[in-house]
Amino acid sequence: MLTFICTILVQMNVSLLEKMQQEGLISIDSFDKAKELEKNKLLSVHWELKTVLYLGITLLATGLGILVYKNIDTIGHQFVLVFIAIICIACFYYCFKHKLPFSAKRVLSPNVFFDYALLLGCLTLLIFIAYIQFEYNVFGSRYGLATFIPMLVLFFTTYYFDHLGILSLAITNLAAWLGITVTPLQLLKENDFNSNTIIITGILLGILLNTIAFFSEKKDIKKHFAFTYLNFGMHILFVSTLAAMFNYDNILILFFLLLLVIAFYFYKKAVGDKSFYILLICSLYTYVGLSYVIVHLLFNVSSVGEGIFYLTGFYFIFSAAMLGIFLMNTNKKFKSDAGI
Amino acid sequence: MLAYNKTALYNLFVRNQTSEAYEKGAVTQEEYAAVFLKYPSQLYTPNFFIGIALFLLTLIIVIFSIGILALMLLGNGSDSMITGLAIFFSAICFIGLEVFIKQRNHYHSGVDTALLCGAVILLISGIEYATKAAGLQLSIIIFIISLACTIRYGFSFMGVISFLSFLSIFFFLLSDLGIGARAIIPFVLMAISLFFYFLLKTNKNKDQLAGYTDSINILEITSLITLYAAGNFYIVKQMGDIMFSQPDSASSTIPFAFLFWIFTIVIPLVYLFFGIKNKDAILLRVGLLLIAAIIFTIRYYHTLMPVEAAMTLGGIIMVLVAWAITRYLHVPKNGFTSVETDKKTAPGKAQIEALLLAQTFSQTHVQNSDTKFGGGDFGGGGASGDF
After folding, report:
1. A12 near A38, Cβ under 8 Å?
2. Spatial CA neighbour of A98 closest among A84, A74, A115
């Protein structure tokens, strides 16, 4: 995190460049250019705007939701609904007016505001759909449908307007439709990983998302979405497989083999994409799985008494050192020009 | 002074500055390559993510080593044994740290970060366990240790700890002096923060401080925040209530209350003003952050309207302001632009943003039979700091 902040804060040091120029490493032209740039330096408020928009929309969507909920049986709530509808229409109007033509490749958003206008439009639309379900019960008790329709809306918006944030909303919605929570901070908290259905669904969903990632890269359909699919898919797949290992003692080895296959796939992917992030996630999950198997074996097999604790301790010291060396070597292999 | 090789650090500094100039298009590729050839740096700093992994793995090694040793030695667990073990292990961590720095050229690689964390935590808790120090004494111990580590290893988090413990020394000193001295605590802390901010600001670009660039930036932010926090009405009042309240005098106000209200509201605006005027990214961002603090402080004491109405209204205002600024900066004006200028980190940040949005706005809680209203919850903030 600190490195991230600091990269933002690095500024050109003119006196240093002057020294480089005196040493003959930099030409006078370049030095003048740097001086000129520093004098007329351009400060980007891109992320400040995004933060303000993000907070504004969070407040707005939450506030409106509570307003509707609190006034549900009074005359006031219709006023609130009209208000929500106006916001929704205004947002989509803005987006349709400013959007760049559709393409299967990456389409850049015309400005910072566009992304969040689209997001606000989607959120208000979802509040509306939820309201209709609550008030008129259109989908009856088929709750699946009540998450399925928003999901379609979200996926359509994602591809039509090219929006990474809405894609991740759509993916969490897809998972919710299947019965799993994949919101980053709730992945472990809200899912009951003792249930067979959740584990199996998780593994299948993980495979599905990775397949989509694979094909969107291969067929060049919105290639830049691939990482988001892969990221969600990778975490679900690893967590579900580990949960399966912890749950089914008798076929532990089977799921461990599955874990190794998955780990191999992502290792290849990390090497192919030169992605340190995938490498990190892949090695940490695999390390947890491997350590579980080894500690499990030690405690089940041995009859050495207290020695078991020493053995476990030595295992962790040794394995952590090994993994560290492995990662440092891989780091050397990837080096420079890597992405995320 | 710094444990790391000085020339290598300076060369790294030169390299970073040159690549910055290269990214901005001031320096040509040949010149860039020439500078890199002339200023070699063999310091080992792996990729950010690998650094995280190395940090975790080193911590595992440290923890299990202590575990094994404790298992062997602490059969009857006397107090002096525990202190001895902690300080002994702290020494081992420091030795390991020096070895990795001197032999392997590790520079903020995750390994040295973890070893330093381990060494400092063990040292402080060892001393604390033996002496039962608290308040002023503890602050002094922490200050001395973290200051020494900041100077020797240049880690920004150590710098922050030493600055905060420095402030807390003054806090405890003055609070022991009686009622009159207590009333001036906020002003003293503000004065120290302000002094420190200008000290850092004026000395920032000195070549001798090449190894401390990160620390200085982070400390600049910290001192701006402590300057505000020491004068914020809510914090002053809460601190006063917690630290010095007598049961019979549940006062509803504090001395110089109006002054603290002025500080609460004016300081962020001053930051913003100078941030915009001097195009200072740090002042601008801290100022924006503290605008939120103004709002929360005022709302805590004065309720103007129900919370949902305030949220809706606030949200609308923020969206409109952002819209107006986007329109205004359609083409860059007065040195400001709304376009992303840092192309290198942009894809990564976009991914984090997407995750944050999913965290905040996906209101579909599984297995809820009631269709839920409400646009997401507020739990998402935590994810933002994790990068």
Report:
1. yes
2. A115
H or E element that contains B104: helix B79-104
Residue A26 phi, psi dihedral angles, 5° rounding: -125, 135
Size of chain A in residues:
340
Instruction: Give the ipTM.
Output: 0.83
Alpha-carbon span B82 to B70, nearest angstrom: 8
Question: CA of B9: how far to CAs of B43, B213, B262, B352, in Å?
Answer: 8, 11, 44, 31
Residue A120 near residue B318, CB atoms below 8 Å: no
Give the whole-angstrom CA distance, residue B143 versus residue B160: 10
- Tokens 């600091």 sit on residue: A6
What DSSP designation does A165 have? H
Residue in B closest to A72 by C-alpha: B373
Which residues on A lie below 8 Å from B326 (Cβ)? 49, 111-113
- CA torsion A226→A227→A230→A236, rounded to 10°? -140
Which residues on A lie below 8 Å from B372 (Cβ)? 130
**Chain A residue with the nearest C-alpha to that of B108:** A3
> Rounded to whole angstroms, how far apart are CA atoms A268 and A263?
9
Task: State the Cα–Cα distance between residues B380 and B387, nearest whole angstrom.
Answer: 14
Residue in B with minimal Cα distance to A288: B57
Cα separation, A20 vs A94, in Å, equals: 50
Query: CA nearest A130: which of B361, B372, B362, B363?
Result: B372
Judging contacts by C-beta atoms under 8 Å, the chain B residues touching residue A313 are 64-65, 67-68, 71
Structure tokens at A289: 């799985």
Cβ–Cβ contacts within 10 Å for residue B117, how many? 19
Which amino acid makes up residue A285? Answer: Y
Say which residue the tokens 């399925």 belong to: A148
Burial of A245 by CB count in 10 Å (0-12 exposed, 13-18 middle, 19+ buried)?
A: buried
- CA–CA dist A154, A121 (Å, integer): 11
Taking the C-alpha atoms of residue B23 and residue A34, their distance in angstroms, rounded to an integer, is 11
Q: Is A128 left (phi over 0), alpha (psi -120 to 50) or beta?
A: alpha
Tokens 């939820």, residue? A130
Residue in A1, A2, A79, A201 to test binding to B, most B beta-carbons within 10 Å: A2
Gap between the Cα atoms of B374 and A134, Å rounded: 13
pLDDT per residue as tens digits for the range A212-258? 999 999 888 888 899 999 999 999 999 999 999 988 888 888 999 99
- B314-348 burial, b at 16+ Cβ within 10 Å, e below that, comes to bbbebbeebbebbeebeeeeeebbbeeeeeebeeb
Rounded Cα gap, residues B345 and B352, in angstroms: 11
Residue of B201, B295, B373, B386 to mutate, testing the A interface (most A Cβ within 10 Å of its Cβ): B373
Pair B77, B85: CB distance under 8 Å: no
In tens, the pLDDT along A91-102 reads: 999 999 988 888
Whether the CB-CB separation of B130 and B83 falls below 8 Å is answered with yes
CA nearest B225: which of B141, B139, B163, B143? Answer: B163
The pTM for the full model equals 0.84
How does pLDDT run along chain A (340 residues), one tens digit per residue? Answer: 344 444 444 456 677 777 777 777 777 777 777 777 777 777 788 888 888 888 888 888 888 888 877 777 776 777 878 888 899 999 999 999 988 888 888 888 888 889 899 999 998 888 888 777 777 777 766 667 778 888 899 999 999 998 888 999 999 889 888 888 777 777 777 777 777 888 889 999 999 999 999 999 988 888 889 999 999 999 999 999 999 998 888 888 899 999 999 999 999 999 988 888 999 999 999 999 999 999 888 888 766 667 788 888 999 999 999 999 999 988 888 875 444 4
The string of pLDDT tens digits covering residues B343-367 is: 777 778 888 888 888 887 876 544 3
Cα–Cα dist B132/B90, whole Å: 18
